[in-house]
Amino acid sequence: MAINLRWQLPSLLLSLLFVVVVGGQSFVENECAGFPPAISSYNGSYGGIANLYQFAGIIANRLQPSLSEDDIARLANVYNENFNNISTEDATYFIKKQTTAIVILAVCVLFIVGLPVAGICFCSFRGCGKCGAAKDQIHSSKWTLSLYILLLIVTLAVIILAMFLYAFSVKNFGNALQTVDEPVDTVIKDVRQMVTFMTDDLSCSINSTLSNLLEHIDDELRILPTQIGEHFKQRIGYHDAYRVIADSNNVSHSLHGSLVSIDEANRILNTSISINRDPSQQMKQRLVSALNTLKHAINKIHRNYNIVIERLKTALSDIDMRMAHSQHLVEGLLIDATRKMSKRGEKIGDFIQLMRSAVDEVLQKGTDGVHKGLLEIHTNLNEHSTMAFLTKGLYVAVLAPSLVIILPAIFVTICVAGRLLLREDIPSERSSCVSFLGNVAIFAVSMVFIVGWIVMLIASFGFLGGYSLEAICHPLFHDDTMRLLKGFPTFSLNITNPLNGQQILLNIGEVLNECRQENTIFTALKGEQFMDIDAKATEYNISAARLQAVDGFRNVDFSFVLPLGGSIHIDEMDDALKFLRESAQNLDNDLQFSGWDAEATPITHHLTLVKVNTLDAANLMSEQLKLLNVVDEAWSNTSDSGMERFIGKHFDDFASNITAYIQQAKDSLLSETLKCRPVYDTWQNVGSVLCGYIGLPAHGIWSSAALAAVCFLPLIILLTQISKYLFRMEPPYDGNVYLYPTISTLHGGSICAYDSGSGTSDVLLVRSNCDISPSRIFPRFASHQRQSSGTFYGYGNNAYNYDTDCER
What we know:
The chain is mainly alpha-helical. It has a domain at 735-808. 72% of the residues lie in helices and 3% in strands. A two-stranded antiparallel ribbon has the order 1-2. α9 runs antiparallel to α15 and α10 (386-419) runs parallel beside α19. The model is unreliable at 1-30, 128-140 and 732-808 (pLDDT under 50).
């Protein structure tokens, strides 16, 4: 099954992050808080051999070229071409960047081609019969032989260790491919659980956070016209005017009571004047005149007060009508903003449904598709014996040539090392066994030349695979800066803000980097920018509504209702009130001057009652005049420019409140939402499966094979030198003769020695006729008996005389 990972992987990752754009907001409200599903901590452990794997992976990683921003852009272009055309400028440039890997592969090719060619040249020009051993040994080389054997043992040990590592690596690699479905199932399960959790949490989070925010904004918009009208009423003294109207009945009742008491006092005084004609008549006349003055002043106040009250009622009624009209106008102007808020609320529901559909589609086409494809590949490999064939092929391709080389080399090493145990008084002779060992060594060298290149071939292909795998794993999973993910446009996504329709560019590398630092999902997904954009859009809408509201109030003419028919009535009432207070004071002075007893005289009682009622009415009227003056001043100062200022200020305060709501929600989301570390852990688990579970044994295959192939070179040199040593030894001697020289005295042209049996007999070894060639006699003797004279020589040399009767 062909799996288009080029599209599936970015789609899966971007969709996984896209579904949590607002999902992290769930933790602002406690009722939405919950525990995310546990992410499996996957670590594919291979024991101590993993150290070799990791070391090889580090080598492959260090060989990777550093990528600049321009290099990443070029690589993105090659990626977009689906790697189909490597002749493009970008592809060629990127291939040139792999200089180190190309050089290593070139060396491997040179090794593969050059090894058999070198073997042909070696055997052709140096004569494989003795492998270049043209002369016999002249001096002892026991220490040189010891050094060769020691180096050979070390080389073989390294090769054998490399073969064991290779065998384990192939085994681990085969097991990884056979059981890859288990970690893949685990990772896919984690992805599904995480996506499902965040998707399910999305509804609660939006309803508890964004919906509340929209409700705040909607409420503010709905009460804004009423607040503007209320503020306007306060500015024009609307409520003070209504207080005047509300108290007008009490004031009128008080004024009426004063008039009644004055009339009663006048009646009593007039009756007293007509009955009693005593000297106090003049005082009574003065009191009647004062009462008439008070009555006139009260009537004047009452008349003007009634006029003001009627006009004030008319004005307030007109203001109510105008304000209702203006509020209706402002509501009409703001209804568009209110409708937008409502539509945003509706879009949230649509957005949730869209997200759920997108998640289902991603899970079906992304995770399910990839999962199904991997399982199908896994099944095909196991059912059709492909895996077994691949594993056995890897075993045979390296272990078979290595065994053909190692076994004869080990045999030579053991046998030659045994010669180091012989005494130094035993001569170095080339027996048939020695010749056989030399031929075995030459055979091992020949096998290296013939089949050694196969090991390097496997190592080269393995290195190419491991290097390519590390080229993917390092930038995707091991690079903390996430430069590749940040630089690839494929790994970026435009998220539409459901509140204002604007788009925010979201990059998967930046998101994963934030999650790696254990920040909240809202921070990782640029939630601050998400809220800032909406705040700016809201402020813009509010500013536009403010201008419309100001224009709307300008269309309402308040000028004709502001005056109270002139200030003359208020001024007249103020003058009359002053006069009333003076008249009441004069009346009180006249009463005190008369000396009448207030309790005994009815006239005094009524006059006192007039004074009290009049002063009470004056006090009530004084409070009314203060309120009327306030209202009059407020109305006089009302203008269109003033209206514009206070409407603008109210809209500014409203915008500040909305901004504060958004900022508060943003701060809560940034600090209290779900920390998105599980998203990064899930991503790392994907890397663990690809780069650890499968990648580490792959690194072990090429590194162990390459180590063995490189050790073949010193193996060739050491075996060649040992074979030379063996072929340069002297031919074999007569094994039945053992001569133990005891003296160095010439006896008539003979050499005297004990034979092997008697130990006392003199044996004539060399006679003058030289029937036995001196070169065929190899004396064996103890080290303390070695001689170096003109007669014969010590260990490793021919024993012969210089008798004139005998030829050498």
